[in-house]
């Protein structure tokens, strides 16, 4: 009895301590002169809603989070806008201590990885001081963002497990919000073509232009949109099989701007991942027609082959061979950094700055931006280099949990369509992480871990039933 009371007391005051930490950036945002009045009012509204009904606050965040770049207006402000929406939802839920009496989720990898991130962030300044005599300490902004994202994943999992209906609604809101945000790509494309229709036709622009409004990196945008393209299309497929034609038509309409936005990013990795996962999900649901399945597989392989080996026609875009060579060389840099700092890594968020010491003259000549520091172009290797080998192991363990539970739920035939759709989209996103670094974007980190938490919670909910 005494042990139970002690554990409950520890959890309560730990949660309140986290709430106090979250209150600091929220107060800074509300006091900032850069934030518009409507933005501050929306932040306060999310705080109140999350405090009174955490599950409703989570659904509201799901609808608003994809639109965060529009609140930031420019790519460099989009990450701050995303954090301004996430923090009040976390704070409101943590102030409740036990949101809506929701049972705890068995996801030990989340606090373990969070602890390793904090250790890495804390160890980096002292290592730099002893090794180089660096005056001052590096900022811990990256560590704060990851901790907030992990807290969002845990909260989403907890509430989706307690309220499966709210969890499924949050999934649909997340996809719908991304679809609305994707309309910006269609508008930007139309504006580009309409400036000089005589010299630039729409068909030509589709094959030569790369754009992603409100994203500083088109490849990151491609990974982000691929998640929602696969999720929306798979949801269409599942609803059509359930004879819910009105809902199917609605999600087909929602998928259209997402498909266009993905194509306009010109990200070969994202397009190939979407094709692979889209084909896999279609096969999983249409496994009886062998001839048609074979034709679809051949077509998918042809598309992936074209995206991988065809001469690029878009600007800016490197040749496939050059892009692969750069990624291999940066992977070597990441492995060398991990070998030199296998336990704590070089520090969360410090890969680009630290990589300058590991860039060879030949790589700097081949890829000039690398001379000033470059990222790993592989999120998994970057996590290992920044947080250490134990950090990578905890990161993979954390991702394996929702994947395994989701798969078991699907095998039992108990998974909701929203769980299947979001799971497929998340796998497409993770495929792009092997050739890119989308998790360097704050907005994308929040969205991905939000999705992972929803998957975990919905899968555990179906496991209970």
Written account of the structure:
The chain is built from 20 helices and no strands. Helix 8 packs across helix 11 and helix 12 runs antiparallel to helix 13. The relative contact order is 0.12. The N terminus is likely disordered.
Structural features:
20 helices; single chain; mainly alpha; 465 residues
Largest sheet: none
Count of runs of 4 or more consecutive helical residues: 20
Element order, helices and strands?
Answer: HHHHHHHHHHHHHHHHHHHH
**Got a strand count?**
0
Name the poorly predicted regions: 1-10, 99-103, 133-139
Structural class: mainly alpha
* Rg result: 22 Å
Average pLDDT score: 80
| Overall form | globular
Report how far the terminal alpha carbons are from each other.
29 Å
Name the helicity range: over 70%
Could you tell me the strand content as a percent range? under 5%
Brief overview:
The chain is an all-alpha fold and 465 residues long. It contains 20 helices and no strands. The protein has helices at residues 2-31, 37-52, 54-64, 68-72, 75-95, 109-132, 141-162, 164-195, 202-208, 218-241, 245-265, 268-285, 290-309, 320-340, 351-354, 361-366, 379-387, 389-411, 417-432, 442-464.
List strands and helices in order, with pairings:
Elements: H1 2-31, H2 37-52, H3 54-64, H4 68-72, H5 75-95, H6 109-132, H7 141-162, H8 164-195, H9 202-208, H10 218-241, H11 245-265, H12 268-285, H13 290-309, H14 320-340, H15 351-354, H16 361-366, H17 379-387, H18 389-411, H19 417-432, H20 442-464
Helix pairs in contact: 1-5, 2-3, 2-5, 3-5, 3-8, 5-7, 6-7, 6-18, 7-8, 7-20, 8-10, 8-11, 8-20, 10-11, 10-12, 10-19, 12-13, 12-19, 14-17, 17-18, 18-20, 19-20
């Amino acid at each position: 009895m005494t042990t139970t009371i002690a554990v409950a007391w520890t959890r309560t005051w730990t949660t309140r301590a986290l709430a106090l930490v979250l209150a600091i950036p929220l107060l800074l945002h509300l006091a900032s002169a850069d934030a518009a009045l409507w933005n501050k009012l929306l932040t306060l509204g999310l705080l109140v809603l999350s405090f009174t009904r955490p599950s409703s606050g989570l659904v509201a965040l799901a609808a608003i989070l994809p639109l965060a770049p529009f609140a930031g207006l420019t790519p460099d402000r989009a990450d701050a806008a995303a954090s301004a929406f996430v923090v009040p939802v976390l704070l409101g839920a943590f102030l409740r201590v036990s949101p809506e009496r929701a049972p705890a989720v068995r996801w030990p990898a989340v606090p373990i990885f969070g602890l390793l991130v904090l250790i890495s962030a804390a160890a980096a300044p002292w290592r730099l001081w002893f090794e180089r005599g660096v005056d001052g300490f590096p900022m811990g902004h990256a560590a704060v963002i990851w901790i907030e994202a992990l807290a969002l994943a845990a909260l989403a999992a907890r509430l989706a497990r307690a309220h499966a209906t709210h969890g499924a609604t949050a999934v649909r809101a997340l996809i719908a919000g991304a679809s609305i945000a994707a309309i910006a790509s269609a508008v930007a494309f139309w504006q580009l073509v309409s400036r000089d229709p005589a010299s630039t036709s729409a068909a030509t622009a589709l094959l030569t232009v790369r754009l992603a409004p409100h994203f500083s990196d088109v490849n990151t945008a491609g990974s982000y949109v691929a998640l929602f393209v696969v999720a929306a299309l798979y949801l269409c497929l599942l609803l059509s099989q359930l004879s819910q034609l009105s809902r199917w038509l609605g999600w087909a309409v929602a998928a259209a701007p997402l498909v266009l936005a993905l194509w306009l990013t010109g990200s070969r990795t994202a397009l190939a991942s979407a094709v692979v996962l889209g084909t896999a999900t279609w096969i999983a649901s249409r496994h009886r027609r062998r001839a048609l399945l074979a034709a679809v597989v051949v077509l998918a392989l042809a598309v992936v082959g074209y995206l991988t080996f065809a001469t690029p026609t878009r600007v800016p875009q490197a040749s496939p061979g050059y892009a692969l060579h750069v990624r291999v060389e940066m992977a070597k840099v990441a492995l060398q950094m991990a070998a030199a700092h296998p336990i704590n890594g070089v520090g969360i968020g410090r890969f680009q700055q630290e990589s300058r010491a590991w860039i060879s003259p030949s790589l700097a000549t081949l890829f000039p931006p690398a001379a000033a520091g470059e990222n790993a172009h592989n999120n998994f290797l970057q996590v290992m280099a920044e947080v250490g080998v134990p950090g990578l192991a905890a990161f993979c363990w954390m991702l394996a949990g929702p994947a395994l539970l989701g798969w078991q739920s699907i095998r039992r035939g108990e998974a909701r369509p929203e769980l299947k759709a979001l799971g497929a989209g998340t796998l497409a996103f993770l495929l792009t992480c092997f050739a890119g670094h989308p998790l360097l974007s704050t907005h994308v980190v929040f969205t991905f871990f939000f999705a992972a938490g929803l998957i975990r919670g919905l899968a555990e909910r179906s496991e209970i039933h």
